[in-house]
């Protein structure tokens, strides 16, 4: 009679990476919730809140650099260092700043749907770069994505007291998605040379320096003393649960599942955000909004790279992490 060991008796999804992929998706999805809760606890400027997040995240990004080091690892070359600063500017600095501005106007659910469109922007930008038009299937998938966004957008316009706020917030978050798409395109060969975790640590650390420098020069550092403990608490949770740990969990999931399957689990992100916003922020949840969510997710999961020989994206697309 064969006796299973405790490890073999454990559910397969706790061993093969699916648990890590789910935890990463959940962590990334909670970022907008923490931002909205911080805004509700005390009137705080987006730059101030972002600076707090980055101040708490900096030690964690430095830990990622240390943890992901290899015995033969060398400091980045001058060229790579310049690219890392450019990626930091696009991915974790501008993208996050635009996103925080957008969340002052729109719901967390709509914010996540707009951000989740960034794979369509990656494909369009790459098509412009390579001068290869996307396939008819890709155009159809993108049309489905934006049709779903339009449905969800109309829901928020109906719920908002001032439609201009929804337009402002959506424009900010759309700009966030564009800058993140540029960041994603810029990673390219650097991920292969450095590894995703080390690159995330380096770019994240550089972005912390940019954000904190921006805050010290143009923000209101004296206002930090007037913030309640809740604002610091939400910022710390954002840095740990929605920044550093999800990056680490996603890397573990990719090691076990591969990028495509890990990203497929990541498609749960918008769903988790919508329901978390309903449960924690009392945001409305209607059939119209759920229909838009379903269309966006369907479209994104059907997207394919324009050039199969050198795909910029895996078959399924990774979760948005900014």
From TrEMBL:
UniProt keyword terms in alphabetical order: Cell membrane, Membrane, Transmembrane, Transmembrane helix
Domain EamA: 18-151, 168-300
Recorded topology in the membrane: Multi-pass membrane protein
Pfam family, one: EamA
Transmembrane stretches, start-end: 20-39, 51-69, 81-98, 104-127, 139-157, 169-187, 199-219, 231-250, 262-281
Claim: RNA-binding is one of the keywords in the record: no
Subcellular location: Cell membrane
Main location: membrane
Domain of life: Bacteria
Listed name of the protein: DMT family transporter
Species per Swiss-Prot/TrEMBL record: Noviherbaspirillum album
């Amino acid at each position: 009679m064969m006796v299973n060991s405790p490890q073999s008796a454990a559910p397969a999804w706790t061993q093969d990476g699916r648990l890590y992929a789910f935890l990463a998706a959940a962590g990334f999805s909670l970022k907008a919730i923490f931002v909205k809760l911080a805004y509700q606890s005390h009137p705080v400027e987006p730059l101030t809140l972002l600076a707090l997040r980055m101040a708490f995240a900096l030690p964690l990004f430095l830990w990622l650099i240390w943890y992901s080091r290899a015995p033969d690892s060398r400091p980045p070359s001058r060229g790579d260092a310049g690219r890392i600063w450019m990626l930091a500017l696009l991915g974790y600095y501008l993208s996050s700043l635009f996103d925080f501005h957008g969340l002052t106007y729109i719901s967390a659910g709509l914010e996540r749907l707009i951000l989740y469109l960034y794979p369509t922007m990656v494909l369009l930008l790459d098509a412009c770069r390579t001068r290869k038009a996307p396939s008819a299937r890709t155009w159809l998938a993108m049309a489905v994505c934006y049709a779903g966004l339009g449905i969800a957008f109309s829901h928020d316009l109906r719920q908002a007291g001032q439609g201009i706020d929804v337009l402002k917030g959506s424009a900010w978050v759309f700009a966030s998605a564009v800058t993140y798409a540029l960041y994603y395109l810029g990673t390219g060969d650097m991920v292969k040379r450095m590894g995703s975790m080390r690159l995330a640590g380096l770019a994240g650390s550089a972005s912390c320096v940019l954000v904190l420098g921006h805050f010290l020069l143009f923000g209101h550092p004296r206002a930090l003393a007037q913030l309640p403990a809740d604002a610091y608490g939400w910022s710390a949770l954002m840095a740990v649960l929605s920044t550093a740990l999800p990056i680490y969990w996603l890397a573990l999931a990719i090691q076990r599942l591969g990028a495509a399957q890990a990203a497929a689990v990541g498609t749960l992100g918008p769903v988790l955000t919508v329901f978390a916003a309903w449960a924690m922020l009392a945001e409305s949840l209607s059939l119209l909004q759920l229909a838009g969510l379903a269309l966006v997710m369907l479209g994104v999961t059907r997207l394919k790279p324009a050039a199969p020989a050198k795909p910029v994206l895996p078959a399924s697309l990774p979760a948005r992490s900014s």
